[in-house]
Amino acid sequence: MDGEIRTGRIGGPLLAAGGVGFFLAGALHPQPIGATTFHDAMVTMLSNPRWPAAHWTALVTGVVMAWAVWLLVDGGWVRGSIAALAGARLAILATLFMSVQWAVEIAARGGLDAYAQGQVVPMAMLVEAMQGVGWPALGVGFALLALCVPASAPRWVAILGAVGAVAIGLGGLLTEAFHIPQAGVLFLGGHLLALWMVWAGVRATRARSTIGAVIPRAATEVEVGISS
Q1: What is the pLDDT of residue 221?
Q2: 219 occurs within a structural domain
Q3: What domain range is 71 assigned to?
Q4: What's the farthest any 2 CA atoms get from each other in the chain?
Q5: Alpha-carbon span 87 to 10, nearest angstrom
Q6: CA dist 89 → 148, 191, 196, 216 (Å)
Q7: Residue 170 in 3-state DSSP?
């Protein structure tokens, strides 16, 4: 029980921080304004000076999110729900995978000139392949968590979080695997997922703090009862 309290107290704040970071990464990410093709959209975004900041924020946030979910699972967050446990495992793996992908995106900016001229840039191709797999996996994992973790947030927040998670999963699949830049608007769903993460993180922190306060008091009452 002590281990559950500790992991909840750490995992909850980390999940909330991950939600804030996820929102900031999305807000910082350049938008392909005016681009009509996938190639033009990528050139526009890679040329934006905010590209490195957005992806460094995403990289750090991804590690925090994976750590938070792992700690909360270890603390019993998904106990009793096979779907929530499956979602947690998928979310951890997908988020770590995407963290590596965000590092590749940072490095891909070095090939901007060659990419803009239509040359084959291996880093850019790797980004497309990794995102085409990583975003859908991350979306499914967090959608399952939002819907299946008992009392993670009010039902309407959980539903919004799941919708946002599915949206970014579809956004990654359609933009990167099928080169439909107009589908990039689906990434706005990340803000809904971030809302759920912050809410769930705060609720998990408060729940563990309450348990931590009750257990010592109960132990003291038992000890007093025995001694008397």
Answers
A1: 39
A2: no
A3: 2-211
A4: 85
A5: 20
A6: 13, 22, 18, 32
A7: helix
Among 208, 205, 88, smallest CA distance to 149 is for: 88
| Domain contains 224 | no
Mean pLDDT by runs of 10 across the 228 residues of the chain is: 60 97 98 92 96 98 98 92 97 98 96 95 95 98 96 96 98 96 96 98 80 37 41
Tell me how many degrees the CA angle 176-29-148 measures, rounded to the nearest 5: 70
Q: Which tokens is 84 given? A: 């929530």
Tokens of 49: 């000076």
Q: Is residue 216 assigned to a domain?
A: no
Alpha-carbon distance 64 to 197, whole Å? 12
In a domain, 9, yes or no: yes
- Cα 192 from Cα 164, distance rounded (Å): 5
Of the candidates 54, 74, 56, 55, the one whose C-alpha atom is nearest the C-alpha of residue 14 is 74
First to last CA, the chain: 27
The full length of the chain comes to 228
What's the token pair of residue 147?
């819907």
Count structural domains, the chain.
1
Q: How many CA atoms lie within 13 A of 69 on its CB side?
A: 28
